[in-house]
Amino acid sequence: MKKNIFATHDALASELAAAVAQRLSRAIENKGQASVAFSGGSTPKLFFSKLAEHSINWAAVHVTLVDERCVDFDNERSNARLLHQNLLSKLSHQPVFHTLYNSEESVAQLNTRLGALPQPFDCVVLGMGDDGHTASFFPNAANLTTLLDLSQQQSLFDTEDGPNGEQRLTWSLAALLQSEYLVLHICGQRKWEVLQDAMAPFDDRGESADLLLPVSVLLSYTTQVIQTGTPLDIYFAKNC
User: Is pTM beyond 0.85 here?
Assistant: First the structure.
């Protein structure tokens, strides 16, 4: 797979939207339905707006989130709210949206409900923080080892943002790596520098146990590092 580097955030968003739209449309054509997981944060807002412009049979698409803060929909920090404002509200036909957070639902119930979601995902769009987290795999999370354990049979876990203690829900690394295609969508010079640090253990393409950043662990199981890994493309723009 490749690193796609763009001069502007607009160019990145346009090309990424086209790539995801193509993946979803192809899956619908081949299987009659498609499934995708999106990330939150400020970076994907423009991408969502561009994706809304594409002609996709959204009624045949199952949509969920990679991770979510344990806050209600009307909270400005809700990833579900962000997705609705920037993508879902702009579509003439709605996909089947599978929310992660429900204040009355246990993690066991969440796993049962989302177990019915068509998997493996046809596409997962990941982000990355300045601390090297992706999904809700935070460096100082108490259960980080569990979240990154590929032997885990459970797909969704509760966890917390290490620095702030904010409660979150996230798909496990094992579940995400079952996807047909992964995207790592990052923007800004600082995140590019973090990505270079994350790739450093693999520069000689040798084995390394010194994977200090959670995103490094993700990368180690993808085609960015090994040919037999889960297909992953990096989409980056310096200017956001």
Answer: yes
